[in-house]
Amino acid sequence: MANKNPAEYTIDMGPMGPIGEGAALMLRVNRNCPWNQCLFCPVYKGKKFASRSIAEIKRDIDAILRLADLLETVSGKMGLPGRIKREVIGELIRNYSEIYGEYPVNVTREQWLALQSLSNIANWLIHGAKRVFLQDANALFLKPGDLTEVLRYLKKSFPTIDTITSYARSKTSAQRSLAELRELKEAGLSWCFVGIESGCDDVLDFMRKGATKKDHIEGGQKLMGSGINLAAFVMPGLAGDDREPAQKHIQETIDALNEIRPTEVRVRSLAVLESAPLYAKWKSGEFKAPREDRMVEELKILLEGLTFDCTLETLQLTNAFTLKGKLAAQRETWLEQIDRYQTLPPLEKARFLLDRYLYDGYLTFVSSWGKNDFRLQAMIAEAERSLEEQSDDAIGKVEQAILAIKSKGIP
Ligand code: SF4
């Protein structure tokens, strides 16, 4: 007989996982970010970091097992032995009102939290229970022995798991020994996603990244040396709009990446978010927000400058182009695509960029969050009008509208 307490079917959950983790279980091994100072990042601002104990994390894994069993029971009763499908979830919610309330009208806070957990866990089970993402910002912050124990317990509880991923900071990776990282790899940690952002110490210092180029290289090389796959996130635009610092930023970034030779490079062009501390620096003139052309130029230099082969992607919608593939095979095609853009007449470039941010999902996302306010709508209308009239200020108006769209959030 199942325990009917909602807490027994609830796990702790953080705010986010990276692009590509849609099929993964979100398992929280610590709360928020232990650094939390990067100027461009709003995600955990105002939230205090807290480690979770091994006992707490294991309790969550046990709750996942309990829920998986319950789903299987319901699935069996529906004549779908062991198969977790959408209709099984609906049936579970209807049959277990002690856990989930009278959804959607009469639900307590505890039951609502159980529903959130159900959505996370059932989605994972539907996708075959293969991939797990360890939340929040830096899972490697856990003592290596503790994390190893958690990984082993997780894989023992769910032998279907084939991939475990997490964010990690370079500084923390650099502080771990190669033997500790190898043990984590053997226990199941498959990928670390590391926000390198820049290889330029001036930029890292200004942005309060809390890591130097040397830390990035040391941490990255150790991860790669341990056999853990490394996805290095880099950020065109992070040095602002002036040509010289921007070129230094991207060259130093290329240099760091060429030393690390990560498995994957993920490009995340800067969006100056109104919820991040960098926004005030932009508005006060202390930081010059980069134009799209500056970031496209940096992307081009990056593609030309990497001397190793890897997977490279620019899937986040803050990038003017969406690219994904093996660098060596795709480089020429991608560079031709960028060249074609760069040789367009200025107004056609502006049209291309405005369409990119209006119609490829960015504005839909902003609207779905209720942030497409009258000021933003007026800026977009102004950009459209000036483009139509081919007025002298059209390119500036388009840039302003794009910066405003991107300041609202990141899809
Ligand atoms: S380390 Fe990552 S999560 Fe933490 S503040 Fe910096 S960018 Fe944000």
How would you summarize the topology of this molecule?
Elements: E1 25-28, E2 30-31, E3 50-51, H1 54-77, H2 86-95, H3 97-100, H4 109-126, E4 131-135, H5 144-157, E5 163-168, H6 170-175, H7 178-187, E6 189-197, H8 201-206, H9 213-226, E7 229-234, H10 243-260, E8 264-267, H11 278-283, H12 292-305, E9 311-313, E10 324-326, H13 327-342, H14 346-359, H15 362-368, H16 374-388, H17 394-407
Parallel strand pairs: 1-4, 4-5, 5-6, 6-7, 7-8, 8-9
Antiparallel strand pairs: 2-3, 9-10
Helix pairs in contact: 1-2, 1-4, 1-5, 5-7, 7-9, 9-10, 10-12, 12-13, 14-17, 16-17
The structure holds iron/sulfur cluster.
The name CATH uses for the topology of the largest domain is: Transcription Regulator spoIIAA
Mean pLDDT: 96
Number-wise, the strands total 10
Question: Could you give the order of the helices and strands?
Answer: EEEHHHHEHEHHEHHEHEHHEEHHHHH
Percent helix, as a range, is 40-55%
Largest sheet report: 8 strands, mixed
The CATH class label of the largest domain is Alpha Beta
Distance between the termini: 42 Å
- Give the structural class: alpha/beta
Count, helices = 17
CATH architecture of the largest domain: 2-Layer Sandwich
Strands of the widest sheet, in order across it, are 1-4-5-6-7-8-9-10
Strand content: 5-15%
Q: List each distinct ligand once.
A: iron/sulfur cluster
Uncertain parts: none
Shape: globular
How many separate structural domains?
Answer: 3
Radius of gyration: 23 Å
